[in-house]
Design goal:
- The chain is an alpha/beta fold.
- It is built from 14 helices and 17 strands.
- A hairpin with a 2-residue loop joins strand 9 and strand 10.
Amino acid sequence: MKAIKVGILGLGTVGGGTALVLQRNANEISRRVGRPVHVTMASVRSLDSQRLCDCSQLTLTQDPFEIVNAPDIDIVVELIGGDTVAKDLVLKAIENKKHVVTANKALIALHGNEIFAAAEAKNVSVSYESAVAGGISIIKAIREGLAGNKIELLAGIINGTGNFILTEMRDKGRTFDDVLVEAQELGYAEADPTFDVEGIDAAHKLTILAAIAFGTPLQFDKVYTEGISKLSLIDVGYAEELGYRIKHLGIAKASDDGLELRVHPTLIPEKRLIANVDGVMNAVLVKGDAVGNTMHYGAGAGAEPTASAVVADILDIVRTIDAPTSCRVPHLGFQPAEIKDRPVKTVEQFESAYYLRFDVSDIAGVMSKLSSQFADQNISIEGIAQKEPVAGQDFVSVIFITQRTNEGQLDRAIASIEAMDEVRADAIKIRVEHFN
């Protein structure tokens, strides 16, 4: 059969890893799909840089539009990132009836609805497994492996940088700022780490997973997003004392009255599997009505783990390259006509248990005054802990763990408490999930 020719836009870490895997495993890949698959072109910023792969048989160009317009390229692999030029390149490739593989979560989260519609119209595929959680293949698992289930919940550690920082804070008692510097030195965090530490990267990924899980359009603008940059080492330690670990999670839940789409720090009981995913590793918990809880774990970044997902997408396209759209797995797992909008809850409508810390005057009667504010909002308390006063301070920290409650009600109770003269600072509020 005719060899399939691949053009790669961006030959950096992931692009070079993709070309390397295709070259190294060429015979195995040919056996799997029944025809050769060759990288023949790649776009680069500099023609003189060192590469991870052998470039002797590649045509290199500094103009990526040469590749999307090349008549003999069958599959375009977009690995340059961003959502401006990348979008133009992907739409042009689709217009030219080329299949597309991308690792670009921002592109899919922000423009996927438009891109998938264009691909349907041109009878080509856009595959994006590597956009979420690197080599875990979580998109394939939800879209295909769990296709017989009604997905009820998914929760993921889907940003390795944030997970590395929280692991170091917990295990070594280091501050956020200290660990962030090391993460940048190790290459886990960018010079501008905002996307990682403020949850934007995770929100992009959650947008994609939720759309596949629940059959809704991609809607990044409706994801509630909270980062880890304001997390205190004090609360990381208190959580550990109480039998919890803090993880930065992307959570999507479905209920009769709408969806919850949220990214934020979360206390998880230390015995849960997902609470023990450390360092730069990723994990996604998916709960289906038939299968129950499933856990998907692995490397979320890196040249070859991500390349593994990119190459798998390429091979999926090769297997069905001559088939009509109706014979391929739909882009979001549901037939396009069955993608239905559903209401997305605001933060005031969320339901969770909560960890709350108040710094209060060390005087008699304060605890009962705090507790009465929760009672006024019909909020039940699971546990209370009062910490020993620190030498030289005239206040103590009081910690409440609530039972599941509505966040709007909780915030009204917190506002009443913060208005009390005995309360020294704004409350610390962190959501708690048990994933039973």
